[in-house]
Write a structure and sequence with these properties.
The chain is an alpha/beta fold. The chain has three domains: 84 residues, Winged helix-like DNA-binding domain superfamily/Winged helix DNA-binding domain (Arc Repressor Mutant, subunit A, Orthogonal Bundle); 97 residues, Periplasmic binding protein-like II (D-Maltodextrin-Binding Protein, domain 2); 88 residues, Periplasmic binding protein-like II (D-Maltodextrin-Binding Protein, domain 2, 3-Layer(aba) Sandwich). Helices cover 43% and strands 20% of the residues. It is built from nine helices and 13 strands. The strands form three sheets. Strands 3, 4, 5, 6, 7 and 13 form a six-stranded mixed sheet that branches. The chain has a five-stranded mixed sheet with strand order 10-9-11-8-12, with helices on both faces. Strand 1 and strand 2 form a beta hairpin. The longest helix is centred in the first third of the chain and has 27 residues. The relative contact order is 0.16.
Length: 285
């Protein structure tokens, strides 16, 4: 069991006095947080909280252990900061980017690299699905990432949500003027790349009157090629919509993203420089 992680659960629930509020503070869902508290209680053989109709309250044993738990967390944070200061600042910073950002991915990579130039540090972009990027952040394999929203992001620190304009697109030769007039399959990345955002996108298309099937494709380039050939429609970033495709008015399908870092990662000035550059670019839409 990861004791530091579970101590953080314990302290946050104690501060919030509510499982739901603590889950929001930790950027996770309630079930794994409740399960984490239960695991800690089993490890110690103690009940840490009494459940109340409107929240939770520390037991006598929980209250007695709270200060020590906070002390351990403070010491772990201090150790992380010290390790970060002593780490090799010359190593490349690894930036995860989802494959459907379009030209925004290039902007993010270029601006992040420019932000690192004065430090002598290089950037290593990693292109992957949001689910993979979240996993890689958790394992410490990348330093930060742009991830889709919504997503399952337990254990991550998250920046604000940014919206990037997207559109439902068809071939320029297609006669449809609105989503409900399109009967082609819609070419989208596999649902496994990020189930919450995928489901939200399909729901938005359905609300706009689109009734076609969903066809999974490996890359945005494949989706664009199938659409240009008249076999599918697709959802594409508006800023770099290919010349052979045209947008359809109607469905709200903007791509929402956030900058994410691992919550327990050591302090890192270079990573923070990259995060600031990303936030600035994404805020411009």
């Amino acid at each position: 069991m990861d004791l530091i992680k579970h101590l953080r659960y314990f302290v946050t629930v104690a501060e919030e006095q509510h499982i739901g509020h603590a889950a929001d503070e930790l950027s996770m869902t309630q079930p794994p947080l409740s399960q984490g508290i239960q695991r800690l209680e089993r490890r110690w053989g103690l009940r840490l909280f009494d459940r109340r109709p409107r929240g939770v309250q520390l037991t006598e044993a929980g209250a007695a252990l709270l200060a020590s738990a906070q002390h351990v967390l403070d010491a772990a944070d201090d150790l992380d900061r010290e390790a970060g200061e002593k780490s090799d600042d010359g190593r490349p910073r690894r930036l995860g980017l989802p494959g459907d950002l379009g030209s925004v991915a290039m902007d993010c990579a270029a601006l992040a690299a420019e932000a690192l130039t004065p430090t002598g540090t290089t950037l290593q972009p990693v292109i992957a699905a949001t689910t993979s990027l979240v996993d890689q952040l958790g394992r410490g394999e990348i330093d930060l990432a742009v991830v889709q929203h919504p997503a399952v992001v337990d254990g991550l620190d998250l920046g604000p949500v940014h919206s990037l304009p997207r559109t439902l697109a068809v071939a320029t030769s297609h006669a449809a003027a609105a989503a409900h007039e399109v009967h082609l399959p819609v070419a989208l990345p596999p649902r496994s790349h990020n189930p919450p955002a995928h489901d939200q996108l399909v729901d938005a298309l359905r609300r706009a009157g689109y009734t076609g099937a969903v066809r999974s494709v490996a890359t945005p380039a494949e989706a664009a090629a199938l659409t240009a050939s008249g076999l599918t429609c697709t959802v594409h970033t508006l800023a770099d919509l290919p010349a052979r495709l045209r947008p359809l008015a109607g469905p709200a399908v903007d791509l929402r993203v956030r900058v994410a870092t691992a919550r327990l990662a050591p302090a890192d000035e270079q990573r923070d420089l990259v995060a600031h550059a990303l936030e600035t670019r994404l805020a411009s839409g």
